[in-house]
């Protein structure tokens, strides 16, 4: 694989400022070097935080993103910056999770995409949101996330 | 997603009294912001307690609720209050678990719902109750609960 | 659910003597309060012991019972007493495990039943026996047992 | 050891009503059958719930009690009922935990007592309270509680 | 314990805005209801985030705070708000961790205080910072944090 | 089940010498007491060792055997002795694992058989061999082995 | 070490009947082959059961025995038979645990002995009993038992 | 199985130099001793390192390779050397992972091959790449990898 | 703390080439911002690799470094580069581990330093090396590393 | 450290035959490259097997060796061969464990040595043997072995 595909990336390598909102974040892509295969790419993002739209208090989540690239790969640093852009963004758990998935689908046009949002507990009850864009491509291999369940104490 | 959907909620934000019984508990709902997708919402509720109808002694359970919203989402604080309303309610394990599921189905009219009740041991033997409303919607992604099995000691 | 269904139970509440053998143990049942649904009931029984028919030495097992009630539920205290009745009963691992399943099938006439027997090691090699009464009812939800595998030491 | 020491117990065996408050709960004791030794008795109580004095909402805790009996043992069923008596009792985490320890010290007059309160999270932050009555008796063996730390999600 | 001690709290119960910086955050206290005992209070705070002073990128940490109250307890909601106030604060790992400890010592004047900062990896290497205010009070019971070590992958 | 089926066993009970090679080992069988059911028997054998045919150095493996008996059960002590007979036997990982499975198939004529060989690392890389005799019988219940993956250190 | 020290053992090797009570059980000993060293021997006994003296119901425990031999080692098969002899013995948790320790001390006259009894839960609350014969010999190495704590469910 | 099949191996046994690049690495093969069966061979390789093509910094991964041999087995020492040959090789995560799989497919012509690459985190976000050569052969048994998910800290 | 202390750092922020050997690696330091306290800084480095001086094959280790800063902190990026500089360095396990510790002591002049080297297995046997510079400073808090022990398979 | 210290090693690198008995095994040593420091070397040996002197059946153990070198290091390949030499050696658990420790002490003359033998269960009861040569050198750092306790099943 030639490295030219990374030539047009603006964020990789340098020190990029954190985007002020999801709308201002730019997702950069590179051509899929193996477009003939259906393979799965998984990003595990335990450093996610947004704001509660009602109380303004911070929310935290552990996100796991799975996708099958079609023509494009997401560049990982721009993905990181996109996720960081929720830092001052108010949004409900279900809405943030599904919204991130939809943005990525729109920009990457993947063959398939799945996003698990494992949110930290509020009121003693954590919420998980499990979204996928449809039936997985046939013959794909998708290991479980294996995220340990919440159990309170003890 | 506009926040207006939360306008009519009476319990969110304020300090709500614990309902005296399941019958007195009000489940509040909000419109599903993503009604076009089949996605799963999971609530993990390790703080559940009711009473044994025979002895009057407290029972405890760890509940995990999964559902696929149709037109409505359950508002999480009202769910918490509903679960707390069993605190003085006598009921058998199988009955409480299935009863909660049925109440939620009635009020949310979800596309699909699943409830796992993991009850604390009595007589050295814990009971689990696993209910679902039917065959899961096609193409849905439903990770395992992964609740660790009971093992006595050692 | 009315509590009348428990009216005829002789063992619940009081202090019941341990039956001397499986044959002498009485399994009590109550009407299934939710006969219209296929739901799973799981009992985890880490306190099981019987005797080796060849050496007379004690054997120990961790049992996990899953069943889908039809018309009847097994009353949990009578189940406990039935399991305790193997304390002085000689029987091989495979035979005890399958025999318990068959007795429960006979008395409960469940829609489906599964019994896992995880026996303590003899000769450095534990035996597990996994029995089910047939193909599970369609649309049933049956979480894994998740019993940790044996590994010797280290 | 003769069983006479249990003769005066009023709660053991029968079905005892849950006391309405800690004040109404009676802790029963039996003579220590081994008063010449310093040994440790540990009770693990994952089924504890009380009320928040400010909001009236339920709180949950996992308690682990360690003590070295002097002249008296606490009878375990009365201990269970005592803990259940907090079900409708408003109290802060620190206060409940230390208060339980003080009540037990007063009634048992043990050589030493330790109580760990592992409270379920509120506001995303669980509180633990670790109390002991003083320096442990010399030569005593006190294994760690080993309660798994809280970690949010992921 | 009377609840009057909570009378002067301004943040408890209501919905408090997130302070813009640590300097603007107010730590509220209540009188120690058990000033005669040396007991340990542990707060586990897995929801902490600040900014890297060099790159402006978010940093995340899991904090565990242990202290032995003297005259004052820290009120937990104000502690939460104080920790949230680092959300837009630039600071190095060692500096944030020790700075939080020093602020708490100044305001609570505890008998003893310990703070463990378990920071998320940067450059593949996480940093932990372990601070305590001095030798623990004699006879105190301080269970290990038991935070699982970092291990990369596999 | 009558115990007569064990009458002809020569190894059970007494002290049997370790066979010098797999060829010299005798696998003893007993009639399947439940030939009408498809149930699974699992043996977990963490005490297996053989020799490397190239270097003569010892190899170690953790074996897990699953089979569905037809007319015969393998007697567990003779299985143990058979496995011990590899102690001085040179053989490659793939060959030993599949060879054991084939020998058992030949002697037991089971409805189905599966053998997992989890070999200790050589050159920093462990090999696992997963063999099954064909498609499992319909309706059979086959829990995962759940053997923890190898991870090097850390 | 010569094997003559095992010459007088009556239980090793053969098939020994289970003693009917602890009193009838014989603990056999062999000379300590390394009497000049203080080393620790640990037996882990997860297969222990006795009877509740009040209800006659079975109790179960996981026992861990540590001792530093003086002149004698306990022969492990006779230890097993001694523990099995509690199968029909009524006794309270504290009493059984300390009683076993005292019997072993009397017969082995060890330099030091420790017994941990981890009892299965009754009434939702397990009891552990931790006994040691005194201060451990100086310079001895005694790893923790590491028995996982009880946690109810979830 | 005769050992002749190993006759032509040049690397086994002796001390082989580490190849300078993947291109220079030779994968050696041996005939499949059991070509009539579909069985799975799994190699777990926690010792993998390559270089980032942009920064030149080292990357690390934990690889798990599964394949179903057709006519050839890969010799494990040559596999180890091949993996080590990436030590000075610049390549992106997705490219290295899929490239290794393709090389192995080309040389082994297996019935089926799967490669999981679990890469160490960069920028706080680890990437996993899951590739398989197509739909697994019918009736094959393929246990999960069970690699523990990444979770940051806490 | 002012950020000026970072002014003279040459490696932070930019993209630094990997040093060719430990001798060529520069460890950069910054003034300890809290020189009045004894606190512990822990770096966990799961990405370490060197070469075997006899065979030239790669070795891997998981390192955990603990130190108590005196006048200087080590800058973490330069530490990372220093560790990476062993990539082409031949050295035995004991020698590398202790050598790294000595280099750090020389350059940082810390109050105390500890280094644990957890090496991947060779010949089926991993080696750990545990070094500390002397008795820890009084009153220091040093949590266990908690690195999971090696166990082969199963 | 110069590599000359390895010059006289006869086993390293080449293919060495397995010694027929412990007596025939040669332990090779190299000069301690850091004789001025007290540091701990730990070998974890999960591949140990010997024979029961009474029944001739194989025994298995997981050994963990800790020592503080004085003038000599043990060469790890010769240690492996020494341990393998017990393959046909009859010996009791206590005797093998302490015997290995004594042999190593004799040959290495270490400042201190500790050996933990974690033996696989016989009769349902595993034996651990914990030996150390005396009080550890002052200021030494000796992490726990952390070997998971035995627990039977469940
Ligand atoms: Ca909460
Ligand atoms: Ca119970
Ligand atoms: Ca699964
Ligand atoms: Ca055994
Ligand atoms: Ca093992
Ligand atoms: Ca919370
Ligand atoms: Ca990193
Ligand atoms: Ca690793
Ligand atoms: Ca510890
Ligand atoms: Ca719990
Ligand atoms: Ca990172
Ligand atoms: Ca699995
Ligand atoms: Ca986390
Ligand atoms: Ca190896
Ligand atoms: Ca055994
Ligand atoms: Ca158990």
TrEMBL record, chains A, B, C, D, E, F, G, H, I, J:
GO cellular component annotations of the record: cytoplasm
Pathway the protein takes part in: tRNA modification; tRNA-queuosine biosynthesis
Keywords noted in UniProt: Cytoplasm, NADP, Oxidoreductase, Queuosine biosynthesis
Region: Disordered, residue numbers: 10-33
SUPFAM superfamilies listed in its UniProt record: Tetrahydrobiopterin biosynthesis enzymes-like
Biological process terms in GO annotation: tRNA queuosine(34) biosynthetic process
UniProt-annotated binding residues for substrate: 74-76, 93-94
Enzyme Commission code(s) on record: 1.7.1.13
UniProt-listed Pfam families: QueF
UniProt function note: Catalyzes the NADPH-dependent reduction of 7-cyano-7-deazaguanine (preQ0) to 7-aminomethyl-7-deazaguanine (preQ1).
Protein name: NADPH-dependent 7-cyano-7-deazaguanine reductase
Lineage of the species this protein comes from: Bacteria, Pseudomonadati, Pseudomonadota, Alphaproteobacteria, Iodidimonadales
């Amino acid at each position: 694989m030639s490295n030219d595909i990374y030539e047009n990336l603006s964020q990789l390598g340098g020190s990029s400022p954190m985007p002020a909102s999801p709308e201002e974040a730019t997702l950069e892509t590179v051509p899929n070097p193996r477009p003939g295969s259906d393979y799965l790419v998984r990003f595990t993002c335990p450093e996610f935080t947004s704001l509660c739209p009602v109380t303004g208090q911070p929310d935290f989540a552990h996100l796991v993103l799975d996708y099958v690239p079609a023509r494009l790969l997401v560049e990982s640093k721009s993905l990181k910056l996109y996720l960081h852009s929720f830092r001052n963004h108010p949004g409900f758990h279900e809405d943030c999770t599904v919204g991130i998935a939809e943005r990525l689908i729109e920009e990457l046009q993947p063959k398939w995409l799945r996003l698990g949002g494992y949110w930290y507990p509020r009121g003693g009850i954590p919420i998980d949101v499990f979204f996928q864009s449809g039936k997985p491509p046939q013959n794909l291999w998708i290991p479980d996330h294996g995220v340990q369940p919440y159990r309170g104490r003890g």
